Amino acid sequence: MTQSCKHCHAVYEDGADCESCFHALLAYENERPAAFGAVHHITVASYYLQHPAGYTHEALDHWREVIGRALAGASIRDLREFSGKTFEGSKRVREPGATPPAWWPVSWPLAIQSVFVPDSIPEVDDYVDRAREWARATIRAIDTAASTSDTPRRAARR
Ligand SMILES: [Zn+2]
What we know:
Blueprint: E1 2-4, E2 11-13, H1 18-31, H2 33-50, H3 57-71, H4 76-87, H5 124-148
Antiparallel strand pairs: 1-2
Helix pairs in contact: 1-2, 2-3, 2-5, 3-4, 3-5
The structure holds zinc ion.
């Protein structure tokens, strides 16, 4: 039976809901340092950007920036440092009841199911390629939505 995610609207088969995929993906990365090192920051950021309910706008901006930097070649150490700086002190990631900006995309060209489904064991290289493609598509969808909205916002800046 197919169902669809109430957050990102991905259509999936039983057992391959986004959250199950995400947990399986994290387990896969944890067992494979090469995959973790190559794409961990962007898979986590892409997942949150497609499931933004309950996160602050500041956190959403941060994850967009993480993907941009990662795709431009930033190392995992740089990304960790960057995330540490953003979220130190009083800045919060979660905010109960928070909703994304009104212009935020409600559907996505690629969903997590295109990267990982439970019980699949992809080759690391294939996995890394798919993860990058997912992140690129996610950022492109957000940038497009931001540029066609008339609300002034940080996202419109280049
Ligand atoms: Zn979803």
